[in-house]
UniProtKB/TrEMBL annotation:
One of its GO terms (cellular component) is canonical inflammasome complex. It comes from the Eukaryota. It is found in: Cytoplasm. This is (raccoon dog) hypothetical protein. InterPro entries: Leu-rich_rpt (IPR001611), LRR_dom_sf (IPR032675), NLRP_innate_immun_reg (IPR050637). Keywords: Cytoplasm, Immunity, Innate immunity. Its main location: cytoplasm.
Length: 258
């Protein structure tokens, strides 16, 4: 039915349908035939790396018009990111990729850096900056609930600083951020003029880390409009500091309800 030329379905939600790698070959064939399907949700299905490989083969095809692909809780590891990196370089339509709550670690971010071809940057070392720069459609990137630490944070921050990065919404829920990496992140969102929303839900930040972020929020070049952070978990001093930031910047909202 989805392959029929008269099919006009634009959004297909298949979360928690017990879809495995074996079924991904059939789903991939739909992606290269259906010119209307813009959103495909496969959350909480055990696709694993084998299923992701088949989906990525279709997502790289110029005929694929998919824009939104939520893949939370799909049992993906860094191996899947080898294929996803190629999609980020090739796809002209994909604008939202959600990889929350998988088994990604620092190696996964490194894998995203190892694409074999970067058309716009032929003479530069391929890294995550190049991946984000070459995919101008990618506006929303969610990497929450993955065990990404020092190396991953460093590479992501460098990617955000790339002048061609177009990411507008970044989700880092439940990451382990030290004060040092709060500084790297703060530096990034004073440079990345496209970044409008940053989710830091369920992240334990110490006093110094919050102060660093607030100093960046007060920077003239910071374009951030929404910061996902639960003010109630901090002491009174930090709560007052965050509230003062909102009062000083009317365009800024700090809330765990974002």
């Amino acid at each position: 039915m989805l392959k029929h030329r008269a099919c006009s379905i634009e959004e297909l939600m298949l979360g928690m349908c017990d879809i495995t790698a074996e079924a991904c070959e059939e789903i991939a064939s739909v992606l290269v035939c259906n010119k209307k399907l813009k959103l495909l949700s496969l959350v909480e299905n055990p696709l694993r790396n084998e299923g992701m490989l088949m989906l990525c083969d279709a997502l790289k095809r110029p005929v694929c018009v998919l824009e939104t692909l939520p893949l939370m809780c799909c049992c993906l590891t860094s191996v899947a990111c080898d294929h996803i990196s190629q999609v980020l370089l090739c796809s002209k339509s994909l604008s939202l990729l959600d990889l929350q709550s998988n088994f990604l670690e620092d190696d996964a971010v490194t894998s995203l850096c190892e694409a074999t071809e970067v058309p716009k940057l032929p003479h530069q070392a391929v890294n995550l900056s190049a991946v984000l720069a070459c995919n101008e459609k990618l506006k929303i990137l969610r990497l929450g609930s993955n065990d990404i630490q020092d190396v991953g944070v460093k590479q992501l921050c460098e990617a955000l600083k790339h002048p061609d990065c177009k990411v507008e919404h970044l989700g880092l829920d439940m990451w382990q951020l030290t004060t040092a990496y709060c500084e790297a992140l703060a530096s990034a969102f004073t440079v990345c003029t496209s970044l409008k929303r940053l989710n830091l839900h369920w992240i334990s930040l110490n006093h110094d880390g919050v102060v660093v972020l607030c100093e960046a929020l007060n920077h003239l070049d910071c374009a951030l409009q929404q910061l996902g952070l639960d003010k109630s978990v901090f002491d009174k001093e930090i709560q007052m500091l965050l509230t003062a930031m909102e009062e000083k910047n009317p365009h800024l909202t700090i809330s765990h309800l974002l």
